Amino acid sequence: MNIASRFSPAADHPGIGLSGMIPDPRARAAGMLVGLGVSIWMNVATLPAAPGIVAPFALGVAALAWLVLIAGTLLTVGSRGARVAAAVAVMCAAGAVLAITDANGLIFTGVAASMAAVAFAPVAALVLSTAGPVAYCLAAIPHGPFPGRLLDTAAVALAGLVAGVSRREIDQRARHSTLVATERRRTEVARAEAELAGERNRLGRELHDVLAHTLGALSIQLTAIDTLARNNAPRDKLITQIELGHELVSTGLDEARQAVRALRGGSAPLAAQLERLCELHQAELKLDDSRQELDADTTLALYRLAQEALTNAAKHAPGTRVSLRVGFGPRDVTIQVGNARPTPGTDIPAALRASGGGFGLQGIRERVEQAGGDLQAGPTPDGGWRVAARIPYRRDNLGNRSDGSDR
Question: Please, where in the chain does CATH 3.30.565.10 lie?
Answer without folding.
Answer: 202-400
